[in-house]
Write a structure and sequence with these properties.
The complex is a heterodimer of chains A (about 325) and B (about 425). Chain A is α/β, with parallel strands linked by helices. Helix content of chain A is about 35%, strand content about 15%. Chain A has 2 domains: about 200 residues, HUPs (Rossmann fold), CATH 3.40.50.620; about 80 residues, no CATH class. Chain A has a 6-stranded mixed β-sheet with strand order 3-2-1-4-6-5, with helices on both faces. In chain A, strands 8-7-9-10 form a 4-stranded antiparallel β-sheet, with no helix packed on it. At the A-B interface, helix 2 and helix 3 of A face helix 2, helix 3, strand 2, strand 3 and helix 4 of B.
């Protein structure tokens, strides 16, 4: 029985700490999708970046197969420009969950001449598509679970839960399969594959409520910490070997956290004092900027940036 | 927080995308960077302010053509409820995308342009919503500003729709006069409709009762058989297999007598774990149970039938004919099937059925008998959405080509 609070516009603590109607439905649906794909596809894989959405995905996968084991490996598409703490976190969690890790390396793709080298400080974000599709082909994966959410971007808002990819890994947004009820059709021919998005209908708030309810560990950079940054294109960018301060920029130390975790060269931090999931929830409830708008330079190029990348086979 | 899913439907240019944009904007669900982007695009196209229709049109081709091609899903919350909106396309060409969005919705909001009144697409979408078992239809009479907020025009459209909806067996129809462009009667009452005493759209969506689909006796389509990880327990119960699935109805309890379908073997529930509806159960006896089987209440089991008579919405260019070989996915089982008879086809203009038809074409609705390679446990769709529905899959292309709903699990028409 759900009790509705008629007096407050914010989630109260009762809403936050329980699996209420909404979160229970979202969780059950995600588990259903994960089980369907695992049952019907020969070789699924779970895309895992160490970011909060993929961490939640891994926890949902664990729940879906308990008391058995997760019957598929995870794959990290590694740009080589990672936050070191995320890689440490990734390795620890993979070990803990007992799953096999496949790394699709952008550096290998550059070294082997499969993609052009964008230079030492160039963005490797768009280069992720080639190694991703390369490993999908090499491992004969016929389904790849992703933690993409429809509230992240307007192209993602259009995508099916099970999204078909042709022989070239391409998404055809004008010709998507009908998807009725919960009757998912995961049938593909050899060489084609699916992307499966079990948490499509979750919002950033749902992710954080789920993390709070289930006490899920995340990389520490999701919480408030002090870090040297520069201000660039309206974002706070951490300084590092691959993101040095440019001429005219003065690095400064700021109290920040990350709302998303991606390639260091295009993922910005936000000023924040939030150091627990509940504090993060409060902060997001009051935020007026979407998480990608606040922290992702890669989506600012054009209004179809995500769609164009997705058509090519991006996440 | 309760979750309500609703779809917006209706003909092209009746203002669906603008209405969604208006709902998101007026409930403050749009973030500043999104508003800035919409304002910039509006200005680039020579417009002023915010063209709210741009909020949901997410594909390049949609922005180029100014139409909606596929469903966009959007999210917002109010203090009373949280919502998932499926903004579905109006073009007849993209009807299958409308069906996709409506199939998981609790409510359908059908827009009509007050100047044009009901059009064929409004009726097709109303018929499809009714077919999909949507209990609440909302008729949003939009663009009231363009008919000078005429009460007479509103009543004319409302009465025509209510009369047609009666043929569709829709239990609840609510008509609301509104203007998505200026926001009148969307989130806030319009000053132009003193003659309208009903709720605004948002208030209606916040207060209408949530439909319940999962009531009734136990139905658990088995998704997976899970063997416990090696070494997870020494005793016998820990080594028993688990049957995992999503409850289509009922709540399993230890000791409940169950029947496994289609085999018909009996046992009792020995253990239940997981947050409903995503559960796993153990049975007292070691039975041959696999993916696709249904664990059901032994005293109130579905009919297991070798043939299905269903209302089918067809979604492929290649028509369905008597003799067509297809695959059906029902619950967690996919079987071979052949269409043996086409009984009738819905005439969308009059919402009446015509008999003596040779085929079911793209975007048509008709009644079809299928014989399946395995008997399937079926409930009426009105009783149980999961147990009464199936999709049709083309064996050659792997595409999803049809959606079926069973009115009565036994007998033929």
């Amino acid at each position: 029985m759900t009790v509705i609070d008629h007096t407050s516009t914010e989630f109260d603590d009762a809403d936050r700490v329980g699996l209420d109607h909404r979160l229970a439905q979202l969780e059950a649906h995600a588990i259903f999708v994960i089980r369907e794909v695992a049952a019907e596809c020969e070789r699924p894989v779970l895309l895992f970046s160490g970011g909060k959405d993929s961490v939640v995905m891994l926890h949902l996968a664990k729940k879906a197969f308990e008391p058995g084991v997760i019957p598929f490996p995870v794959m990290h598409v590694d740009t080589g420009h990672n936050f070191p703490e995320v890689i440490e976190f990734r390795d620890r969690l993979v070990e803990q969950m007992g799953v096999r890790l496949v790394v699709a390396s952008v550096q290998d793709a550059i070294d082997q001449g499969r993609v052009a080298d964008p230079g030492p400080t160039g963005s490797r974000n768009r280069l992720q598509t080639q190694p991703l599709l390369y490993e999908v082909g090499r491992n004969k994966f016929d389904a790849a679970f992703g933690g993409a959410r429809r509230d992240e971007d307007k192209a993602r808002a259009k995508e099916r839960i099970l999204s078909f990819r042709d022989l070239f890994g391409q998404w055809d947004p004008k010709n998507q399969r009908p998807e009725l009820w919960r009757l998912y059709n995961p049938r593909v021919r050899a060489g084609e594959h699916l992307r499966a998005f079990p948490i499509s209908d979750w919002t950033e708030l749902d992710i954080w409520r789920y993390i709070a309810v289930n006490d899920i560990d995340l990389p520490q950079m999701y919480y408030s910490h002090r870090r040297e940054v520069v201000a660039r294109e309206g974002m706070l960018l951490a300084t590092s070997e691959v993101t040095p301060a440019l001429p005219g920029e003065t690095p400064f130390v700021e109290t920040v956290r990350y709302r998303t975790v991606g390639d260091m060269t295009c993922t910005g931090a936000v000023r924040s004092d939030a150091s627990t999931p509940l504090e993060v929830l409060t902060e997001i409830e009051q935020s007026r900027i979407t998480e990608r708008g606040a922290t992702r330079a890669d989506d600012k190029f054009s209004e179809a940036a995500m769609e164009d990348r997705k058509r090519e086979g991006y996440f | 927080m309760e979750l309500l899913r609703f779809a917006t439907a209706g003909s092209v240019d009746d203002g669906k995308s603008t209405l969604i944009g208006r709902l998101l904007h007026d409930t403050k669900a749009l973030f500043d960077d999104v508003i800035d982007a919409v304002a910039a695009t509006t200005a680039r196209r020579g417009g002023e302010g915010l063209d709210l229709a741009l909020v949901t049109d997410g594909l390049r081709a949609e922005r180029e053509q100014g139409i909606t091609i596929d469903v966009a899903y959007r999210y917002f919350s109010t203090p009373l409820r949280s919502f998932v909106i499926a903004d579905t396309p109006g073009h007849v060409q993209y009807t299958r995308n409308m069906v996709t969005g409506a199939s998981t919705s609790d409510v359908a909001v059908i827009l009509v342009d007050a100047r044009h009144g009901l059009r064929e697409q409004s009726l097709r979408h109303a018929a499809l919503s009714a077919l999909l078992g949507i209990q609440h239809l909302v008729l949003a009479v939009n663009k009231m500003d363009l008919v000078d907020w005429s009460e007479a025009r509103y009543i004319e459209i409302r009465d025509e729709f209510v009369a047609l909806a009666a043929r569709l067996d829709v239990p609840v129809v609510t008509a609301i006069p509104l203007c998505a462009l200026d926001g009148g009667n969307v989130v806030d009452q319009s000053p132009h409709t003193p003659w309208y005493a009903g709720p605004c759209l948002l208030e209606h969506l916040e207060t209408l009762p949530l439909p319940r689909y999962d009531e009734g006796a136990l139905r658990l389509p088995v998704q997976l058989v899970i063997k416990p990880a090696v070494g997870s327990g020494a005793d016998v119960t820990a080594e028993r297999r688990w049957y995992a699935g999503s409850l289509a109805a009922g709540t399993p309890k230890v000791g409940d007598e169950i029947v496994v379908l289609p085999s018909g073997t009996h046992s009792r529930i020995a253990a239940v774990e997981g947050n409903a509806p995503a559960v796993r159960v153990q049975l007292e006896h070691e039975l041959d149970v696999s993916r696709g089987d249904v664990i059901a209440d032994a005293h109130d089991a579905p009919h297991t039938v070798p043939q299905i008579v269903a209302r089918v919405a067809w979604m492929a260019d290649k028509p369905l004919r008597a003799g067509s070989h297809v695959l059906l996915k029902h619950g967690t089982r996919t079987v071979k099937a052949v269409a043996t008879q086409l009984h009738d086809r819905l005439d969308v203009a009059t919402l009446t059925s015509k008999t003596g038809v040779g085929e079911l074409g793209l975007n048509e609705i008709g009644t079809v008998t299928f014989i399946t390679s395995l008997p399937l446990p079926i409930d009426a769709y009105a009783t149980n959405r999961t147990m009464g529905s199936f999709i049709v899959i083309d064996e050659v292309t792997n595409g999803t080509v049809g959606a079926g709903m069973v009115a009565e699990p036994v007998g033929a028409h």
